[in-house]
Each structure stands twice: as structure tokens, then as C-alpha cells.
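ligand=dTDP-4-keto-6-deoxyglucose
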Amino acid sequence: MDRVKELSVTTIEDGRGELSVFESMKSVPFEIKRVYYIKGMQAGISRGFHAHRKLSQMLICIQGSCRVLTDDAFTKKEVILSSNSKGLLIKNMVWREMHDFSQDCILMVLASELYDSEDYICDYNCFLNEVSPASLTMSL
Ligand code: T46
């Protein structure tokens, strides 16, 4: 499944702590136009449940952990994010769900586009109907 990829994040650790680096078009394979993070999830809460028509993103759990389910309409994949040294690249036209957030989880997301509510596909059957070779715009 090449629309979802685990990437390593350069993390420099010294006696003072850790520093992690994200560079557009280098370790992050797109121009970063937006950064957001989610935190403060209550136990049992899940998020996501949508795909994006155009947007590609890289998810990094900078604290705590969560489980990310992805589905490109052909293959489902589950990844546990529990380290700030691992990023999960999710290209456009991939259904995603985030589950099992730890109480201290901070999930940071680097995005290839500005926020656009029209880019979301929130109905799974609509997502399946829209998947076509022409819709798969981003390649590594
Ligand atoms: C994704 C996963 C990983 C904004 O106003 N601007 C923004 O940039 C974003 C990301 C969200 N919002 C608003 C839209 C909703 O009213 O914030 C509210 C919560 O967003 P949403 O329900 O989409 O949150 P999640 O956690 O389900 O999904 C988010 C991203 O929206 C999505 O692109 O892939 O994180």
C-alpha cells in the first residue's frame, strides 16, 4: 500500500533533551502549508472518519500514543504512533480513523494544503465511489 507510508523523523538527542526536524520537500515529501495538533482526547474517543480529495498529511505523535487505521479502498492498515521519531504519511484519497488515544496524546499534523472543508469526504461509500486512478494525485 503506497498511499500510506511510515517515515522516520530526524531526532537529535543530547543531554538537554530532544529536537525533531521536519523540512518541506526533504524529510516531508510535500510543501508544508499548515500545521495543527490535537490533544486532550477523553478515553474512548475516536476521531477522523474521513478521506481528503487533495490533501496529503504527515502525522506525528509528539507525546503519548494513538492507533491510526487507514484504508485506500483496497488495503486496510493499522499503525501505532507512539514515538516522535516516527511519522505517518497519508496521501490524498485515503480513509483514516484515529483510535485509542492515550490521555497525554498530542498528535501533530503537517498538511500539504490550507484548510478546506470541501476537501473532506465524510461518507465511506462516497469515498469508495470517488476512488479512481485520476483521483490519486500525489506520488512519492
Ligand atoms: C485529519 C485528521 C488527522 C479547522 O477549522 N481548521 C483546520 O485546519 C482543521 C484541521 C480543523 N478545523 C476545524 C473543523 C472542525 O470544526 O476543527 C474542527 C475539528 O476538525 P475535525 O473534526 O476534522 O478533526 P479530526 O481530528 O477528525 O480530523 C483532523 C483533520 O481535520 C483531518 O484533516 O486528517 O485530523
